[in-house]
Amino acid sequence: MGFLDYFKKSKQEQAATKAPVAGKAQASKPKAVIKKEDKPKKKEALHAAKKDTKDAYKVLIKPLITEKATRTNTYLFAVNPKTNKQEVAKAVHAVYGVWPAKVNITNFSGKSVRWGRSAGKTVAWKKAVVYLKPNDKIEVFEGV
Fold first, then answer.
1. Which of 129, 125, 123, 111 is nearest to 81 (CA)?
2. Domains in the chain, please, with CATH?
3. Rounded distance, CA 112 to CA 75, Å?
4. Which of 23, 75, 79, 88 has a C-alpha 20 to 30 A away from that of 30?
5. Tens of pLDDT along 90-108?
6. Is the pTM of this model over 0.90?
7. Per-residue pLDDT tens over the stretch 15-54
8. d(CA 39, CA 17)
9. DSSP 122
10. Within a 13 Å sphere around the CA of 104, how many CA atoms are in the beta-carbon half?
């Protein structure tokens, strides 16, 4: 018999403590049955939407405003260099609520630059060109 076995109760002692005492009537309480209705879980849907939007701002770094893009129904975004076209389309939908008709992506490598004697390199980045359907529009200039 080990040291810790001394503190354990035997099965007979446990059964004796759980057994009802003779002479005392126990009142049984009916358990209330709660049925959950099949409602859409709003909190989970909002949480998923917030999560998508949070991730979308990691994909879309900033909008690029150019004269050529503002004349047509295209929008330019500087995006995370590790993203692909599908992620850009999902991010545009999450932030602006519009599905793009087409997305093109171009990579820009960093250029060599000099400041006096010291030399360096600019940061490589990626640009996404988002084409929308003729009826759709993105409000990029809100609050300007």
1. 125
2. 64-135 (3.30.70.330)
3. 28
4. 23
5. 999 999 999 999 999 999 9
6. no
7. 666 656 555 555 555 555 555 555 555 555 545 555 667 7
8. 44
9. P
10. 7
